[in-house]
Amino acid sequence: MGGEILKTGANITKQAGTVVVNATNGDIDLSSAKSIVQSSDAKINHGSYKQPEGPETQELLVAQVEGPEKVQAGKTYTYVAKSFSRKPIGGELQAVKWSYQIDDGEIQDFDNPGRIIGGIVKKVIRMPESLSDNEKIRIYAYLQGPSQDASYESEIGLVLIEVTTKADKYLFSLYPTDEHPAEKLTAKELYDKGIQWFCPHADNYLRLAETDPNLATFSELKHFTWEAIVAFAEVDRWSISFRTGGSGDWKAVATGGDGYLLITVGGYPYWADGIGQIPFSVDTYRENLEDGMSHEEATRSTLSTGQRFGDGSVIGGESDASNSYDNHIILRTCLWGESRYSVTHIQRRFLPDTYSVQTTGHSASSLGNPLSKSQVDTYL
Questions:
Q1: Mind listing the domains of the chain with CATH numbers?
Q2: What φ, ψ does residue 16 adopt, rounded to 5°?
């Protein structure tokens, strides 16, 4: 501020509770044609000059910024310009600007200002999806220019549940939930948590986000087509062969899962024990049709048998009537079988009627279609 203040008049009167006159870089010249009168009910003090304390002589700066220690791409967080070099006056806080720096890249400005609440400024920031490949983000709040003294650095955490082999080879990712937050897990750790991604209406379901594009070639997994699964399942077997360790125990036999925990079918990952429910379901379902049951009766009976021998034991085992992916795979197989198999009713004059089951041209790959909510509600 510069220039002069000139006041002229016959009489000039100033009246206030307190009147302060400061000359921060010069003189105060009091002159009069007659007299200058100083009066006070208390006393008049004369002393050496002191620089006045007050916001009008101190530059306003952001002194502290706060925010979350860890952020995730795709989520929204709030940062706060919490304190300043002095108490802001008037609309000074409206001039607070915000910038960001990803890893050690360039500092870039945000387009929109923050929100003034009381004596602080809040900035709500949605982290872009592209941040998932970075390690940190620093948020700046300032009036004159960005400074690390008025900034906050947040670590960029995992966005998804990343599933790997024991040797840390990436396999696929799942979307996290509040119950299952983003983290890195081996396939065995994921299996031990009971998590699955292929039966949307079964327990412990998490949505698959992505797979490694070369997953179907990894030697750490065993790979199948739906045609191969169905070819194994449609071999006629004794019911006892589906016991744990039997010739129909697909997850264990060499031509099936062969002891692998994780397999792919058509390039899509599955737990081997889930796919292992298909041969039992196909065989039992077709036997029920041959016994004269309708498709719906055969489905309910097959599901009941699968639940009764839920752990694969013939004697002394534990049943499983839960909302597990095993039971969903059994039901899925039976409902697929309704289109896969047709039944011919053969009436005989002097002998009991018989029922012949034939295979239609219904696609094996459609066995990969998950159940709908209405199908689950009808049968489970």
A1: 62-156 (2.60.40.1930), 161-213 (no CATH), 222-379 (no CATH)
A2: -160, 165
